[in-house]
Every structure is written in C-alpha cells, then in structure tokens.
Amino acid sequence: MQTSELKHAQLKKWIEDAAALMQPDSVEVCDGTQAEYDRMIQITKDAGLATELNPQKRPGCVLFRSDPSDVARVEARTYIASKSKDDAGPTNNWVDPAELKKTMSELYKGSMKGRVMYVIPFSMGPVGSNIAKIGVEITDSPYVVANMHIMARVGSKVLDVLGKDGFFVPCFHSVGKPLSPGQKDNGVWPCAPMDKKYISHFPETREIWSYGSGYGGNALLGKKCLALRIASVLARDEGWLAEHMLILKITNPEGKVKYITGAFPSACGKTNLAMLIPTLPGWKVETVGDDIAWMKFGEDGRLYAINPEAGFFGVAPGTNNESNKNAMDTIQKNTIFTNVALTADKDVWWEGIGYDAPGEVTDWKGKPWKQDKANKEQEPAAHPNSRFTGPAKQCPVVAKEWEDPKGVPISAFLFGGRRPKTIPLVNQAKDWAHGVFMGSIVGSEVTAAALDVKAGTIRRDPFAMLPFCGYHMGDYFKHWLNLGKNAKDPSKLPKIFFVNWFRKNDAGKFIWPGYGDNSRVLAWIFDRCDGKGGAVETPIGTLPTPDAIVRPNGVSEDDMKEILKVDIEGWKAEIADVRANHYPKFGAKLPAELNDQLSAIEKRLAG
Ligand code: OXD
Ligand code: MN
Fold first, then answer.
1. Whose CA is nearest to atom 6 of ligand 1?
2. Does 234 share its domain with 153?
3. 287 & 413 share domain
4. If you take atom 4 of ligand 1, which residue's CA is the nearest one?
5. Tell me, what's the pLDDT at 450?
6. Residue 553 sits in the same domain as residue 420
7. How far is the CA of 113 from the centre of ligand 1 (A)?
8. Of residues 335, 262, 259, 260, the one with CA closest to residue 292
9. Which of 394, 429, 452 is the last residue of a domain?
C-alpha cells in the first residue's frame, strides 16, 4: 500500500515527515499478509542475512546471525526522556527530550538511504480489544517486519480499527546503516556502533525512537518499548496494569479453571512456567502469554488480562524436551532463529538442546565449531541470548481463550526470583499491601561470573520491571497500592504469592526439582484462592503446612520442612538489606506503606 492511500491524516503526515528526514529509496505500508512475510524473508535471503533451514526438519524456518555488537537489549543505551528527570526516576537513564530528539534527528538524517522504509501498523492485543493498543513502527529492516508479523497483529486490519483519527503510538526504528548507490548488505548485519545506539522513550508524548540496533527488544518496538515502558505510563494514567508477567490457565481435576499471572526477572524460567507439563495427576496447565500481561478491571470488579503479544521471543539455550517440550514443538515450523548454531544438515543447535552437537556445526558467528566437552573454556556455539521467534498459535498448549478480546479473569499474582536461601518455596501475602511489598523486593542472586558484583549478591528487580518501567519506580509502587485501595470490590482482587523454585542445600544442590513439579505449588495456590489448602499464618506470610503440597520424587519430608520454614535470622538480614540498600534508592517517592510493611514484619519476627 502507498502512503497516499492512507485515510488517517495525522499518520500520513507523520510518515511523510519521517521519509523526508530519513530519505529512504521508497516507502511501503505493510499489509500483514503471508505474501508480505515471504517477501521479507526472500529479501533478507538475497541480502545474505537469512539462511533457510532444512524444510524436512524445520519447514518455513530461517536463521539469522547478528553483529557481535548487537546481540541483546542495551540497557545502558535505553532512555526514558520525560520532561522532568525526577519523573524517570533513579532506575532509568534520562536525557532532556528536546536534546535527545535533536541528537537523534541528526542520526536519522538520511539514515535510510539505499533502503526501503516499511510502515508497520500493529496492534498489541487482539485487534479491536478494549484493552489493546495500536502502534505504528517505521523501520528500514525487513528482519524487523518479519519478526513483527509473528510477535504482533500487523497490517491492514489494524488500519481499519485506527480509522481516520484513532490513537496510535508512533515508533521510529532505523538500523543506522544507510547504503550508498549500488551498495548491498552482503551478509553483514546492519547496525550502528554501540555509542550511536539509542532506544528512547518519550512518555509524555507517547513516542518511541530507536536507532542503531536491529536486535530483539531494541528493534521490535511493540514488545518492551511499547507494551511495557510506554504502556506502564498509560496504565498509570488510565488506572490499569502493564506488567512483565506470564499468564497461565490452570484446570484442576474437577475441571475448575483459574488464571494466574507471574512476574519473574530474566533467567528464572518464565517461558517454561507458562508452558509447564504438570506432574500432578489430573491437573492441566495451558498458556495465555509468556512475557507480558495487560490488566484492566471488568464490570464485575475482577481484573482481566490479555497477552498483548502474538508470539514468543524466547531464549534458545537451555530449551529442550525436558525443560519445555511445548516450546520445542512450537518452534518446529514457521520460526525465525537468531544467533543459534547451524548443523551440517541445516537444522538448529544450541547449548542445552538436550543432545550433543552433531559433528561440526557453524557457530553464531558463522565459524566452524566442533564440540569439545573436555574444554570447559570453549566458547558456546549459540550465543547465550540467541532467540527463537515463534507464533503463539503453534504452541500445543495455547489456551483456547488466548486471543479473547475481553481477556481472562485473574485469580492470583506470583512474584519470584532465584533465591538460594531464606525465601520459602511459596508464601501467600496477608493482604494487598503486603503483596505489593513482596513485588517491590523481588530479586535474584547473581554469580560473580555473570556480573561484576560479589557472588551471592541479590540484584533487586522490583516486579521484574527494573528495565521496563517507564516512570519513577516509587510512583509505580504507589500506583500498585492505589489500585488495591480503589478496587470496587477488594474481595475480587487477585491473591498475591511469592514463589521460589531455587532453594539450595548446604552442598549447593537445588532442593526443589522445578519445571513440571512446580504444578504442585500451583495446585496449592489454586486452592488458596478458594480459601482452601493447608496453611499456617507466620510472621512473613501464609505458608503451606508441610503436608499441604504433594511431595515430588526426591524431596524428603525434611527437605519440605526446610523450604517451608521461617528463617528468622535470614529474614532479619533480608529486611536490613531492603532498608539499607534497596528502598533508599527511591528517595521521597517511596510510599510510606512499604516502610510500614518492613517494620510490621520485623515486629512479627521479634514477637
Ligand atoms: C526478555 C527479557 O527478553 O525479559 O523477555 O529480557
Ligand atoms: Mn521478558
């Protein structure tokens, strides 16, 4: 479609202005058809950027290799450019919006020379849902267009909903690598150097400007940029929630259904939990979403969630038939792989896929690679953040209501992180404010090897939103507290739980097996939502009685007691850490109720 055919005057003008600035060879408005997807893949193949995989093994699948400087979200180059620095808060990078737009406009000048400017109208959420939001991304990357086809609903159907004057979030994206006449990418992933990459958000004007990166959340602007950073601001202003949460459907042996959302920092197995295969007989888990939940109150006073995405952008390494068979089945066809290894027969391979590399493979940098298990220092064949982009509708356990425009009613929120000590397997909040407190102290242990910090340090990631909250985190806590206070019917609010699958014993071994056995904990949570399930009130929250959770193989009665006990000394240290090192970060904006929670737990522990 040509820009001249567009009915939305503001959209048309915005595209024309962008084209005048970025100077592409031509402009195309995406229609979202399969033919368009196929054409994008063909263009990237012709440019030497995509490799078609073995159609017998992976029909409709391709592999991309990115530039080594462009392999992950770049938090240091991500900005929340609100008018006032204080509105971005202490956890975001801030630049004055006028200054940032000036810098970036210079970069965008002529940045699409030699390329096509694609205009992607997209809906986050089922098209036409009253919870969904529309964005329009301008990009010079056909890789981005193809990925957006999988991750969002794109094309003409979105323009129909937008009409002549509907609201959309305008999103600029350029890889920042113009081509001179006759020049081609020739197999070189286009991007700009690190110090020229910018992932910028303008919360007041609801705009996103991204430059210099073609990878993941930096470039597929519907996901982290719109559905979390900008949406968190919309949600604050409009009284709803945009959260970094999976959504799962759980059915008990009697056929009763509940929906649960959960926030976990990266690398805590969120996608695996969203698709788990229960080991508890008679229980069923199905997937509504694996990364983001948007939630609004319905007429009946319950909170309804939609998954704003249409696909999974999952980390490949560690995904296998044991850890996540449903994800493995999802990505069998029509999937884009990025930075995994390529086998001689054109299949994919990665560390933790469940079997050894079959002979010599090509690593993510395009070099021959042979597995050497004796060499512990061997560089991995797949980049640790290599990804699959797979359609959610291909997931064997996708819930039938995953695209229901009204969303699904949520019974429980989970918060969790990797906590080897102190934090019990599961703990129910006493009330909403206590639950908000739990969300505010979410953290995960980091190893010295992973980050330049002392081993055993807890990296706090409140609500798993640290890199994704588009405003001051103190105000975000307040928003959560207010939502509970203002609820029409507080009894219909989701119950809040803190879970921890990652407790270790003194020998450093995991006590709880995790994966499908987490269904045993979900079953207790399910029952608690109905006021059932063996439970005991403790100073830190409501814990299961030791026999309330059906023990999996390999977990003894003593193990169970250990992971369900109140570790008084550990909790005292936890509270001291939150008080000294975590809460002070939020300054005067930290809601007093959260400090009150600290004091209340302290008092209960002492008493
Ligand atoms: C993601 C993340 O990629 O949370 O989903 O980092
Ligand atoms: Mn995520």
1. 266
2. yes
3. yes
4. 266
5. 46
6. yes
7. 31
8. 262
9. 394
Q: Answer yes or no: do 511 and 530 share one domain.
A: yes
Q: Which atom of ligand 1 is nearest to the CA of 291?
A: 5
pLDDT at 453: 52
Residue 266 in contact with ligand 1 by CB distance below 6 A: yes
The answer to whether the CB of 309 is under 6 A from ligand 1 is: no
Among 218, 238, 258, give the residue marking a domain's end: 238
Total count of domains within the chain: 3
pLDDT at 166: 96
Report, as residue numbers or ranges, the catalytic residues.
Answer: 268
- Span 468-492, pLDDT tens digits: 999 999 999 999 999 999 999 999 9
Q: Could you tell me the CATH number of the domain that includes residue 323?
A: 2.170.8.10
The pTM of this model reads: 0.96
Residue 468, φ and ψ in degrees, nearest 5: -125, 0
Per DSSP, the three-state class of 544 is: strand
Q: Within a domain: residue 59?
A: no
- Ligand 1 contact, 279 CB (< 6 A): no
Q: Is 180 found in the same domain as 95?
A: yes
Range of the domain at 126: 3-49+74-238
Q: Measured from the CB, is residue 243 less than 6 Å from ligand 1?
A: no
Residues, Cβ < 5 Å to ion ligand 2: 291
- Indicate whether 218 and 248 sit together in one domain: no
Question: CB of 267 closer than 6 A to ligand 1?
Answer: no
CA R_g for the chain: 24
Query: Does ligand 1 lie within 6 Å of residue 291's CB atom?
Result: yes
Q: Is residue 594 part of a domain?
A: yes
Q: Is residue 293 domain-shared with residue 435, that is, in the same domain?
A: yes
Q: What is the pLDDT of residue 451?
A: 43
- Tokens representing 383 are 């980049």
Question: What is the best residue among 73, 226, 270, 389 to mutate for testing ligand 1's pocket, by most ligand atoms within 8 Å of CB?
Answer: 73
492 closest CA partner among 279, 298, 351? 298
- Atom of ligand 1 minimally distant from the CA of 216: 3
- What's the CATH code of the domain at 23? 3.40.449.10
Residue numbers of the chain with a pLDDT score lower than 50: 450-451
246, 266, 290, best to mutate for ligand 1 pocket (most atoms within 8 Å of CB): 266
Q: What is the pLDDT of residue 456?
A: 66
Is residue 56 situated within a structural domain? no
Pairwise CA distance, residues 169 & 222, whole Å = 10
Whether 140 is covered by a domain: the verdict is: yes
Burial call 514-548: b when 16+ CB within 10 Å, e when fewer: bbbbbbbbbbbbbbbbeeebebeebebbbbbebeb
Instruction: Work out whether the CA dihedral 373, 376, 378, 380 comes out positive or negative.
Output: positive
CA 141 to the chain's CA centroid: 22
Nearest CA to 441 among 468, 412, 419? 419
